[in-house]
Design goal:
Blueprint (H helix, E strand, L loop, with lengths): L4 E6 L6 E7 L5 H18 L5 E5 L3 E6 L13 E4 L7 H20 L6 E8 L4 E8 L5 H13 L1 H4 L6 E5 L2 E6 L9 E3 L5
Parallel strand pairs: 6-10
Antiparallel strand pairs: 1-2, 2-4, 3-4, 5-8, 6-7, 7-9, 8-9
Length: 194
């Protein structure tokens, strides 16, 4: 157990279950535990007989499987949620977003075995952009960086011109918005020069 990262394996052979839980790096322990408690109930209700499941929530993720999932970088599918609003100047918005996300990736992937999380913001003449990235701490620095870079590369495909969005996979996630959605900030990125 670390800063909102939990892993547990119980049982043996075909009856073994492996589970991983990760809370967002900026929330308090009571919010983390409430999110995880709620997610256990929800996953049991909607996946009563599955041997593997994953649930993505606002403040946590929970996954379990009868296969080894710790340190896994296998992505079977992506969950992405775009903000419905468009930027007034897409090129300028993307020009401010890209350096913010890259700096956050660098900071998060350098985190240790307890937490790989970074949040921050940058301002442009259009707006302030807030970003958050996180990996499960069982990933190496390179695995975390690769996972987050993969998600960042999909912004142009799924969110081009959107002022916000979230992408989740089992071992990492990103989010950006033009409003503050996290507690505290680990980085403030200077305004890009155009």
């Amino acid at each position: 157990m670390g800063l909102g990262f939990y892993k547990l394996s119980i049982g043996e052979g075909n009856d073994k279950v492996n589970s991983v839980a990760l809370c967002r790096g900026d929330i308090k322990p009571d919010v983390c535990l409430r999110c995880l408690s709620d997610s256990v109930v929800i996953l049991q209700r909607i996946c009563p007989t599955q041997k593997a499941a994953i649930g993505y929530y606002e403040y946590c993720l929970l996954k379990y499987s009868n296969e080894n999932i710790l340190g896994s970088t296998l992505i079977n599918f992506y969950v992405f949620l775009p903000n419905t609003q468009n930027a007034t100047d897409i090129d300028r918005f993307n020009g401010a977003l890209a350096p913010l996300m890259r700096d956050l990736i660098s900071d998060a992937s350098a985190g240790g075995g307890q937490q790989k999380f970074a949040s921050g913001n940058t301002s442009s003449d259009l707006s302030t952009i807030y970003g958050l990235v996180q990996c499960t701490p069982d990933l190496s620095k390179q695995q975390c960086s690769d996972c987050l870079e993969d998600l960042i590369s999909r912004i142009a495909i799924w969110f081009n011109g959107k002022v916000g969005g979230r992408i989740f996979v089992p071992m990492c996630n990103i989010r950006y918005e033009t409003y503050r959605f996290f507690n505290g900030s680990t980085l403030v990125i200077p305004q890009p020069v155009f």
